[in-house]
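Dear all,

This email documents one entry for the complex benchmark we are building for the journal club exercise. For each entry we list the sequence lines for every component of the assembly. Then comes the predicted three-dimensional structure of the complex as a C-alpha cell string, followed by one or two observations. Please use this as the template for your own entries, and keep the labels exactly as they appear.
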Amino acid sequence: MATPPVAVTFEPLDPEALVALVGAQGDGAVVTFAGLVRDHNQGRRVEFLEYEAYEPLAIRALQRIVDEAGERWPSARVAAHHRIGRLEIGEASIVIAAASAHRGDAFAACRYTIERVKQIVPIWKREHFDGGDVWLEGATADPDDQAARDKAYRIACA
Amino acid sequence: MRVTVRLFARLRDLAGTGELTREVPSSSTAQQIWNDLVLEWPQLREYEKTISVAVNAEYTRMTADVRDGDEIAFMPPVSGGYR
C-alpha cells in the first residue's frame, strides 16, 4: 500500500518510507525527525507511554500542519506519521520527513511541523512510571491561534 | 435531538466513559452540552478554561450550534513534552 503523507497508526513507524515519499529527484536535502519515548521525565523513571488519539481529527490536524509547512516553505515536501497505543522506552512515537532543494528549508519545515504537532494534534500520552501513571497535558489546541503559529515559525527559523 | 459525546484522555477517565449519547434541546450549543456534562461529573469543571471542542471531527468553538446526530468531542490540552 502506498505510504500516505500523514497517518496515525498502532504500527511501528518507518522513517525510510517517509523519506522515500517526500524525496524527489533534484533535492539537495532531506531532514528526518523521530520523537522517542524517554526513560525519564520530571525526575520520574518512565516505564512506558500510552498514546491515545481522536483519530479522524488527528489526521486532519496533521494534514493541516503539512499544508501550512508547504505554504511557508513552498519548495519543501513534508510527511508526518504518529504512532499511538503502548510504546516502550526508545520507540518512536512520531516521525517527520521534510525534503527540499536546500537544507535550510528542509530543517525549518521539519521543525515547524513538530512544534505545530504539539500545539494542535489531538493526541495524548499517559506516562506510566515507577509508582503510578499520569496524563501529560500541554497546550489547549486551537488551530486558529495565530500567536501559536507564529511561535512555531520563530522556533523553526531560529 | 440526539447527539454523541466523545471524551478523551483524562476527561474520559474522570467521566468513566469515552462515548455517550445525550438527548438535548434542538438549537443547543457545544457549551450547553459541556455544561450538562459538568453537572453530571463536577470534576470535569477544572477543564472549563482549557478544553478544545470538535463537532464531527472538525475543530470549532464552544458557541457552535450542534445538530441532531452530531458527534461532539471535548478534548483536554494536547500532549506537550517533545522538547
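Observations: The helical segments of chain B are 9-15, 30-40. Chain B has a mean pLDDT of 94.
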